[in-house]
Write a structure and sequence with these properties.
alpha+beta, Heat Shock Protein 90, 5-stranded mixed β-sheet, 12 helices, 5 strands, transmembrane helix, kinase activity, Sig_transdc_His_kin_sub3_dim/P, transferase
């Protein structure tokens, strides 16, 4: 009968149900042979019942509910020997056991209470047919109240399961968002800081040799830092700026600054925003790895449409890697996989990263191919 999820005002409704104890007064009120003792017995029955009722309406274990409901039914059985209205105690017991779990246990308990009513029908001292007329409402209301409360209990359990499911969904969504932010910050700042480090080292070497070139590199570092700041702001807002063309331009500039000869041959049509963003981040991650780890002298970025699949390849002649994949490559795989694509990494006389990203069934809109000349535009 207790439900932690009931509205605050509903918890007081349980006290209104005590009005049905009025059935105990019918017999002494309408029986011409009733005397003061019958009224005293009504008071005794109510006094014995109230603690049981108040206890069972508080959150209890199923075992405690069964014990309290059994005590109510026993009180009703004994009380029916002196007052046929005591059968109301069985109805209260049915309302309590209806909240047992699972539902089968609740229905079994209600069936047991109906058995108690049958026993009352046998032992009641009232003559027939008055005995049957007195207990018939108890049979009806035990079934009705028990069934209604079983449905209410199941509805309450369903609400609780839905709330737990909603809470779990929110928790998983927050976890996924934290992982997404971590991947995005790695891709945004990892690449940019790698370029900044390379250019700072280059500027430091140029200061005693070519001050004008060193100043140009410092100016370029400033521009890269400003672009990174803008990208972080747009990432926080949930957007990506620049697209694949801009990323290819940054890649060409970063590789050139690191002393890597780069050839860009990307001929892709206009892609959906999500696909273009994934490919742009793939280019960024690959170029970051070339600048940081590959010790390469040459690199190549190729892109083309193969049937309904956009294919992007980044290759270099560096030393490759034989350890576990880092967070950047793992994040790339997750993003590509989310769009139904695949990432293949081959290490042999350098490294080749191949990204295959299937497109939607509708044909993409042609755009001006992106080649080396376009890539070097700032």
């Amino acid at each position: 009968m207790s439900d932690d999820d009931e509205p605050r005002g509903a918890r007081y409704v349980r006290y209104l149900w005590l009005a049905y104890l009025g059935s105990l007064v019918f017999q002494p009120a309408f029986d011409p042979d009733a005397g003061p003792l019958d009224w005293v017995l009504v008071g005794v029955l109510v006094a014995l019942f109230l603690p049981l009722y108040l206890a069972v309406t508080r959150p209890r274990s199923d075992r405690a509910v069964l014990v309290l409901a059994g005590a109510m039914a026993l009180l009703g059985l004994v009380g029916s020997l002196v007052n046929s209205g005591a059968s109301v105690f069985v109805i209260y017991a049915a309302a309590a056991v209806a909240y047992l779990e699972p539902v089968r246990r609740a229905l079994t308990a209600i069936g047991g209470l109906l058995g108690v009513l049958l026993l009352m029908l046998v032992v009641s001292p009232a003559p027939m047919p008055w005995r049957f007329l007195a207990l018939a409402p108890a049979f009806v209301f035990t079934v009705v109240v028990g069934a209604v409360n079983v449905v209410d209990a199941e509805r309450g359990r369903t609400r609780r399961r839905l709330r737990r499911a909603d809470a779990e969904i929110e928790r998983l969504a927050a976890l996924a968002e934290r992982e997404r932010i971590g991947r995005d910050l790695h891709d945004l700042l990892g690449h940019t800081l790698s370029v900044v480090v390379v250019k700072v080292e280059l500027a430091g070497r140029l200061v005693p040799l070519d001050a004008e070139r060193a100043a140009a590199e410092v100016h370029d570092i400033e521009q890269i830092a400003r672009e990174a700041l803008g990208e972080v702001r747009t990432a926080v807002a949930g957007y990506r700026a620049g697209g694949l063309d801009a990323e290819l331009a940054r890649a060409h500039r970063a590789l050139t600054a690191a002393g890597v000869d780069v050839d860009v041959d990307v001929e892709l049509p206009a892609l959906p925003a999500a696909h273009e963003s994934v490919l742009a981040l793939a280019v960024r991650e690959c170029v970051t790895n070339v600048v940081r780890h590959a010790a390469a002298t040459a690199a190549r970025i190729d892109g083309a449409l193969d049937g309904g699949t956009a294919v992007l390849e980044v290759t270099d002649d560096g030393r490759g890697a034989d350890g576990p994949e880092g967070a950047g490559l793992t994040g790339m795989r997750e993003r590509v996989s989310a769009l139904g694509g695949a990432v293949d990494v081959t290490v042999a006389d350098g490294t080749r990263v191949r990204v295959e990203l299937p497109l939607a069934a509708s044909p993409p809109v042609p755009r001006t191919p992106t080649g080396p000349a376009a890539a070097v535009e700032p």
